[in-house]
């Protein structure tokens, strides 16, 4: 093999299989509108390709600067923001949340009943900030469609953009019971939106301004925001919904999307728009120990702490999860402060390394960082739900197959 086909210890011929696989199995058959993929190793982009149409109705091809709804890939950004404030001594992880949100002092745990007539009991202990960062707070999501708590979230439109603000979200949640006593289980939830509220509260800045000043501008991320600016709208992808028969239909038109209008709900759990290049800069800062091109966004030891498995007794997600929804395969994965963390490779049934961390979004976007191999991958598409196909696991097989040294 000639050295020209190797870059950062990766075989470029083997990486090109990614594009072939996506084209043959997803794009040509009409299962997926578009795919933009980036593979980086040892601090450099090794392989990147944009395929398909970012807007099928308008026949606009996906490009490297297409703007995507990254949904829950917002969560690691919010978690880093909150931990920046931790580094400044603004709070401790075992602080009770009600120290900062007094209306949450008397939160109760669900026993029975439907909204608004719940029967509740006191929690075994108060919710802490670490519970929020690790989704062990007892909160939920309306779209989980699993419990009477979820139903109340849907009734009150707590997942949506219907005039909700972070302040009104916190107010509504103060009157609803928790799914379980904090720290006793894991449930994917609005907890990271609450982390976003704490960032605003502790910093005295709106969440969008805080992100811009402390993360986006330092890292040179010019295309990441809660609202798509008018002059960037032509680069904004359409979003699609998976349909029976492996087809898809338009879910959110970029021209009329609420992401294209100013709105009051700055969702730290799922509100950001970004490009693959911008998210790569964020991920590369993490892969480099918290710093990129001289701009440090988080301390090395803080990030090491965030990448640990914070689930009780080092268990994995299936052992403690009560909800069926997540943006990562459960088996062999624990959870840190804002990311899933791989703990058991064989159990996960996907190639990787212990300590690999990352997360995904509802519309199929994903990223992961492998510190052992100094490898990171970012993948963007726009198809809801993310579980429609097993692309994330297939992508791992294709990427790791290209490692040569």
UniProtKB/TrEMBL annotation:
Instruction: Name the Pfam families on file.
Output: Beta-lactamase
Instruction: List, alphabetically, the InterPro entries matched.
Output: Beta-lactam-related (IPR001466), Beta-lactam/transpept-like (IPR012338), Diverse_Enzym_Activities (IPR050789)
**Mind telling me which residue stretches traverse the membrane in this protein?**
none
Cite the Beta-lactamase-related domain residue spans from the record: 21-386
Mind telling me which PANTHER family this protein's record contains? BETA-LACTAMASE FAMILY PROTEIN (AFU_ORTHOLOGUE AFUA_5G07500), BETA-LACTAMASE-RELATED
Q: What is this protein called?
A: CubicO group peptidase, beta-lactamase class C family
